[in-house]
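Hi R.,

As promised on Friday, here is the backbone we talked about, encoded as structure tokens. Could you run it through your design pipeline when you get a chance and send me back a sequence?
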């Protein structure tokens, strides 16, 4: 198999909160972006006296004229403290936007290490319909944030537990789609037919239909990755996939079997394909203590052209939370949307053109996602 290593030196801007990257404000949008709703969330109440916090889920549009409250989810602070050694749970939405998963309290079964409970809500009825247990990927930092992965094909989500990966529909039908040993992380393709799986320090692609396992190779040898593999993502057509191990970003082409490795010399936490040849990824450093802020902790949103190896810095924020920054692509594919904020402060949602030249700050909120109903 062809294997290429590309070393890329990036010049970092170390002063100021935001580099002078932008030429203008975003003033106009394609109709498809204007008419597609943005779902987002925020902590609406934090009551120290009662030890209860509340997450509110909302939807709106870019002009913020039709904001609607969807549901609120309560959780007890002691529950979070008791499970502080696992990643924090934040909401994620189904393909249709009719369901949301969020923190579900104490696990139903605590026999399995690093498991957490997820509450599944029906947004239309504003009711919790059931609780699902899932293992959480091993995290290098105790404050990483995890969202339950939903199918891009139907109203279903994916969990892994007891060395199995399962697909669970919102009407509570369960299907085992993979069985293995020491599963540490995974990502299902956009058509639910392939799974990128990390098993111990090995990574491979599993075909659900044929039950065939194909290791991702380097010179005919399986790639050995670190304990912490992040940034797993698939292109819409499932031809390419990406994943990150420490500061290495791997891009694998399914038809040819070729793998290319890029480095940014910084930890990579997330990746998002914007086309078959361009991928956005987030790098950053995080304080050992979440209550400490300094200019040593920051995140950057970068764009990589996999054909040329060129990396473009799109956005940089000092004293940020890299695990919270998960850009989402607009329906037009002209913009990305994400939430930005400093530690111990509120988040604001940011709209940025994919070339990094135009920007617009929206309103307070976090984890935004476009949903086409």
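Update: got your reply. Pasting your designed sequence below so it's all in one thread:
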């Amino acid at each position: 198999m062809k294997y290429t290593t590309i070393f890329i030196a990036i010049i970092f801007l170390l002063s100021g909160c935001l580099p002078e990257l932008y030429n203008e404000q975003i003033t106009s949008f394609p109709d498809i972006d204007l008419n597609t709703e943005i779902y987002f969330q925020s902590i609406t109440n934090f009551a120290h006296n009662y030890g209860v916090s509340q997450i509110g889920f909302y939807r709106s549009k870019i002009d913020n004229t039709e904001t609607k409250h969807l549901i609120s989810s309560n959780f007890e602070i002691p529950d979070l403290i008791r499970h502080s050694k696992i990643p924090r749970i934040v909401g994620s939405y189904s393909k249709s936007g009719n369901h949301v998963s969020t923190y579900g309290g104490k696990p139903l079964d605590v026999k399995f290490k690093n498991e957490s409970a997820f509450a599944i809500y029906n947004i239309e009825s504003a009711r919790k319909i059931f609780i699902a247990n899932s293992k959480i990927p091993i995290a290098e930092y105790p404050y990483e944030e995890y969202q339950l992965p939903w199918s891009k094909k139907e109203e279903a989500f994916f969990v892994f537990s007891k060395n199995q990966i399962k697909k669970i529909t919102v009407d509570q039908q369960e299907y085992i789609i993979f069985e293995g040993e020491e599963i540490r992380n995974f990502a299902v393709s956009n058509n639910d037919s392939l799974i990128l799986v990390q098993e111990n320090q090995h990574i491979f692609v599993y075909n659900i239909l044929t039950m065939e396992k194909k290791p991702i190779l380097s010179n005919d040898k399986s790639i050995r990755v670190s304990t912490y593999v992040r940034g797993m993502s698939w292109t819409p057509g499932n031809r390419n996939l990406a994943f990150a191990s420490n500061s290495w970003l791997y891009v694998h082409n399914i038809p040819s079997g070729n793998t290319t490795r890029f480095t940014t010399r910084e930890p990579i936490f997330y990746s998002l394909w914007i086309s078959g040849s361009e991928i956005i990824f987030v790098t950053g450093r995080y304080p050992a203590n979440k209550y400490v802020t300094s200019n040593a902790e920051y995140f950057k949103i970068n764009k990589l052209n996999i054909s040329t190896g060129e990396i473009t810095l799109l956005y940089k924020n000092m004293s940020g939370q890299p695990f919270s920054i998960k850009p989402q692509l607009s329906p037009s594919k002209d913009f990305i949307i994400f939430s930005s904020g400093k530690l111990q402060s509120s988040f604001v949602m940011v709209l940025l053109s994919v070339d990094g030249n135009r920007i617009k700050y929206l309103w307070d909120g976090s984890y935004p996602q476009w949903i086409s109903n």
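One thing I noticed while checking it: Residues 1-20, 45-51, 77-85, 290-295 have pLDDT under 50 and may be disordered.

Thanks again,
M.
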